[in-house]
């Protein structure tokens, strides 16, 4: 047989063997490592409403320790246990985040080797058996009402070239996947709390008072400048007390101030000692305030007086609404730093230090001010109650008008009292820490709220009109 024929025979035999192998071999086209690609991580977790807690544990490189953020529903009340059990506005956010967790799929298998965990950033932040401090991810855990684990995942480094993707693995499993994880898992304190802390809207605010004074911490002396009250008159017109000649209230600055009340940025909280959560005067008389309580207050820039009043480092801002709710914001000490050191506090957060922003302590309280809603005249009688309307006299109609006005007044008073009580309960237990920006926007002086009176435009004849006393846009 010639060499050409031999080559042809052997080639044909090889081709037959290849075809037989393809026909009779296993049908699976991918290796075993890829058998679950495309599946969700937690197939039994399908209802996001079942989640009653979220815990995120991240490794802090600066402190070389794991930091925990947790949101929890206890008996219908959402709190943040990692932040002194501060109330959370968490139901909707938690459900949305849980729904995102449910949808995470095993998009791309990457490794089955424990030795790759550091490179992918998926080492458990709680793993004390690993000596390296590098390569630790965030561990995200959802639990149900009975503390059963619904989902538990370690999210590692971002996948290069694939925005929204990270390396992930399930704790106690070595397999690492690439998966889309942009599901809104936030551990930022302010993302989980009521953003409008005071609960006011722009049209609610009818009176603002600057109580301008400073406390000299070294001598204990109080330097007072006095009060400056500004009342709303109508749209973009405010009237101030004791305004110097040639000046008027700057409605633009007032509008900015009122807008800032709606967006106070709370960056941290600290719980008050028990004796400081109610009436200070009563607490002093009952000897419920200890020396430790006083030191706690003074370290934050708040100073009780013997009369049962309270002074603060940088004066006060008082705000009254159309329902008679009176807020008092007392500006205390500077608090340096950022991150958890500010939001929850640690051993260094209350010390002066370089770095971070100049955040500010503030104490807030709310009460009902009856002078905001003066009682209208009452009807002389209610004889109209028993008469058909077509038989009312002029006196009956006037009494009915007065009765309606008094009923409306009573409803507003009751609404204002209830609102003030709810807010007083909300604020009672906490020292708040506001951002430097919020403090700057709200801590104003009277000079900053005034401007020169604008003169009227010259008329065609060249004469000038009188100076305007109220400026409208």
Write a structural description.
There is one protein chain. The chain has helices spanning 3-24, 91-103, 117-120, 251-261, 280-285, 291-299, 340-343, 394-427, 436-442, and strands at residues 53-60, 65-74, 77-80, 86-87, 108-111, 138-143, 149-158, 165-169, 176-180, 205-215, 222-234, 237-240, 247-249, 266-271, 302-304, 310-312, 316-321, 325-337, 357-368, 430-434, 450-452. With 473 residues, the protein is α+β, with helices and mostly antiparallel strands. It folds into 2 domains: 33-192, no CATH class; 202-374 and 428-452, no CATH class. The strands form 4 sheets. The protein has a 9-stranded antiparallel sheet, covered by helices on one side. Mean pLDDT is 84; it is low at 6-10, 16-30, 347-355 and 457-473.
Tell me briefly what this model is.
The chain is of the alpha+beta class and 473 residues long. Helices cover 23% and strands 29% of the residues. Strands 4-3-2-1-6-7-8-9-5 form a 9-stranded antiparallel beta sheet, covered by helices on one side.
Question: What's the main sheet like?
Answer: 9 strands, antiparallel
CA radius of gyration is 34 Å
Assembly state of the chains shown = single chain
- Count structural domains: 2
Q: Per the principal axes of the C-alpha atoms, what is the gross shape?
A: globular
**E-strand count:** 21
Termini separation:
107 Å
In percent, how much strand structure appears in the residues?
A: 25-35%
């Amino acid at each position: 047989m010639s060499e050409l024929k031999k080559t042809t025979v052997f080639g044909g035999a090889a081709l037959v063997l290849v075809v037989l192998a393809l026909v009779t071999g296993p049908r699976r086209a991918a290796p075993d490592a890829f058998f679950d690609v495309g599946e969700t991580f937690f197939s039994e977790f399908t209802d996001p409403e079942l989640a009653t807690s979220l815990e995120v544990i991240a490794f802090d490189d600066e402190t070389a320790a794991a930091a925990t953020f947790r949101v929890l529903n206890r008996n219908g009340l959402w709190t943040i246990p990692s932040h002194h059990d501060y109330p959370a506005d968490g139901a909707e956010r938690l459900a949305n985040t849980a729904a995102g967790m449910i949808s995470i799929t095993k998009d791309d298998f990457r490794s089955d080797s424990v030795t790759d965990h550091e490179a992918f950033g998926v080492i458990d932040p709680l793993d004390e058996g690993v000596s390296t401090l590098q390569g630790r991810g965030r561990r995200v855990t959802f639990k149900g009402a009975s503390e059963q684990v619904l989902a538990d995942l370690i999210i590692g480094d971002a996948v290069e070239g694939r925005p929204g993707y990270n390396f992930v693995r399930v704790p106690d499993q070595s397999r690492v996947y690439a998966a889309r994880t942009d599901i809104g898992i936030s551990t930022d304190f302010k993302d989980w709390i009521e953003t409008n802390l005071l609960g006011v809207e722009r049209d609610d605010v009818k009176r603002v008072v600057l109580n301008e004074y400073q406390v000299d911490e070294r001598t204990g002396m109080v330097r007072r400048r006095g009060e400056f009250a500004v009342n709303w008159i109508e749209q973009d017109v405010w009237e101030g007390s004791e305004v110097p000649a040639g000046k008027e209230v700057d409605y633009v600055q007032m509008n900015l101030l009122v807008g800032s009340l709606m967006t106070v940025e709370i960056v941290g909280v600290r719980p008050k000692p028990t004796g400081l959560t109610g009436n200070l005067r009563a607490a002093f008389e009952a000897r419920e305030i200890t020396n430790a309580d006083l030191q706690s207050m003074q370290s934050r820039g708040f100073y009780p007086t013997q009369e049962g009043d309270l002074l603060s480092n940088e004066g006060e801002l008082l705000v009254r609404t159309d329902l008679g709710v009176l807020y008092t914001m007392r500006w205390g000490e500077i608090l340096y730093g950022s991150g958890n050191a500010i939001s929850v506090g640690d051993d260094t957060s209350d010390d002066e230090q370089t770095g971070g922003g100049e955040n500010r302590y503030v104490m807030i309280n709310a009460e009902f001010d009856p002078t905001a809603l003066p009682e209208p005249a009452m009807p002389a009688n209610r004889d109209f109650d028993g008469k058909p309307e077509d038989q009312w006299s002029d006196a009956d109609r006037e009494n009915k008008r007065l009765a309606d006005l008094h009923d409306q007044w009573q409803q507003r008073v009751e609404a204002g009292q209830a609102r003030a009580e709810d807010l007083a309960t909300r604020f009672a237990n906490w020292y708040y820490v506001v951002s430097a920006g919020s403090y700057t926007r709200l801590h104003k002086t009277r000079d900053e709220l005034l401007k020169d009176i604008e003169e009227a435009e010259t008329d065609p004849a060249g004469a000038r009109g009188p100076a305007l006393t109220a400026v409208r846009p």
